[in-house]
Design goal:
The structure holds two protein chains of two kinds.
Chain A: H1 2-38, H2 45-58, H3 64-90, H4 95-117, E1 125-126, E2 136-139, E3 142-145, H5 146-168, H6 170-180, H7 182-187, H8 192-217, E4 220-221, H9 227-240, H10 245-265, H11 274-288
Antiparallel strand pairs in A: 1-4, 2-3
Helix pairs in contact in A: 1-5, 1-6, 1-8, 1-9, 1-10, 2-3, 2-4, 2-8, 2-9, 3-8, 5-6, 5-8, 6-8, 9-10
Chain B: H1 2-27, H2 30-56, H3 63-78, H4 81-87, H5 93-96, H6 102-124, H7 129-149, H8 169-188, H9 190-200, H10 202-207, H11 212-238, H12 248-261, H13 266-288, E1 290-292, E2 294-296, H14 302-317
Classes of the chains: A mainly alpha, B mainly alpha.
Chain lengths: ~300, ~325
Amino acid sequence: MTSGLLAALDAQTIVDATGLGAVYALMAVGIGLVFGVLRLVNFAYGQLVMVGAYTLAFTAAWPVAASIAACFVVVVALSMVMERAVFRPLRGESPAVMLVTTFAIAFVLQAAALLVDIRDDTIGEIATSIASFNEPITLGGLEVRKITIASVVAAAVALGLLALLLTRTTAGLHMRAAAADFGTARLLGVNANHVIGLAVFLSGILAAAVAVILTVQNPFVGPDFALRETIVVLVGVVVGGIDRLWTATLGGFAIGFATGVINGVLPTDKSVYLPSLVFALVIVVLLLRPGGLFAWGRQTAVERM
Amino acid sequence: VKRSLDTAAQVLVPAALVVAVGIGSTLVSSANEIYFLDALVSVAIVVALYVFIGNSGVLSFGQISFVAVGAFAAGVMTIPLDSKTGVLPQLFPILRDHTIGNIASLLLAAAVGGLFAFLVGLPLMRLSGLAAGIATFAVLEITHNVLREWTKIGPGATTLALVPETTQALQATVGALVAIAVAFAYQRSRFGRMLRATREDAAAARGVGVSVHRERVLAFTVSGALAGFAGGLLVHELGSITTEQVYLELTFLTLAMLVVGGASSLWGAVLGALTVSGLSSFLAEAEQGVDIGATLDLPSGTRLIILGSIMALVLIVRPSGLTGGRELRLRR
């Protein structure tokens, strides 16, 4: 009987871990798309998700569809504003400057959220309207929350559409060309602003989708919503290999899946040093494969930036 | 003569600025003194960051780990013996039954920070770019996790309190000056020059026989020792500390200070730390209501918004920082 329980637990854990991996993969694509064309690691990506979650909380009285639509509009708009006001003047600067600037933007958005939030003397808002998606349904002895199915489906559909866009359309060709070599792509007639605009637009859409999924899972929205997830995804993206969208996505999925599995398997009292183990593993992978776990070809430890 | 004057100015002007802030702290009310001490400790931390990041051009998110171990080493070892067994009963006996003095605790903090940085740096300094950034960030996460959970070496997730508050005006000023002096001596030494050569062009530096790995490990160790020392100053300034105070927020804030000032010069590190920390203090006061001709009274919470916006603005307008990443030069 014990072994049966264990087997059920394992299948359950794997289902939950897959759901988590799917969400992280969506975030990884959003971060990887912008990195591809701008060479910019957007630390403020989590704050886009946070703003989306607040939009859902403040429109909780609206019909669900309208509330979700509002979330998409606000997040995509903010994403475009960020590109125009911050990313564009920084084009071509060193990665450190770009990264630290996005820290500053993240600071500002987080502080703004706190300011909006404490007006009614509470920290955190609750998005009630979409919480019903969090209910479980039973599938062959497994408790599967509707949102887990939704996030896996959303990730699959989004990745599929993105793959079609990148490989079958002119805009996608331009974007891949720009990611490979922006200078040459521009010489050959690729419009830089269009390509970057499209990448930022798509990454905004993904952030909004992630906002909806995460808010369903955790309807309590605070200023540091999605901050932890963003950090973990950034780590996963670099470990997977940030130079290519597919390796970045796989890295995001892998770190989400691994976190989910380990959380499910280890009892709470033994998992206090778990972050140390995970990050020690990250260091080992980076030392062995600095260009990314899933990147092909020979890799040497010392490389030029 | 002009060149040696220039060289002297590069270290004396930042030092004079630090001394001015130190003297300033003794002239203001005791409620405002904390802002001046904060600024001086920030200078020490940011200069420690600069020694590695500025000279090597490699981004590290891990230096606050060394501040953390320095702070907890100095803090745990200076709590008076009679209260230590009560507040930290689970410590290793050797830590529990001994107490050292203020200066000794700062030296211990520097030694622990330097040793830790050396051990971490040996493998990690093979990495560059984003891989280095993420690997050093992993060090910060591991350090935070272990300090938070292992109650045999520290307070764990609770607050480390009852640390003697010895970082007053004198110790803060001298501490910041020591950091500046060490950083200046390092960057003028042949090791500092070799590392700066690898920053400008790693392949060319290797071509003339510079070992990139060895020079980076050395700078990482010096930076770690200074960071540990700064951590000692910090814990003696605050009197109590938690692991959360030497973690993500401090990492971002001090990195922002360095980049806003101009990451590739000592002058930039000092100016960035003083400017950002001064601005932050002024805004904190303005949230309480401050009189600058007219009464300025900001709603609470605006401090971080304004601070973040100004940082972003500086980086957009002057990406190489306020100083342009150059050392101070006398007018010709």
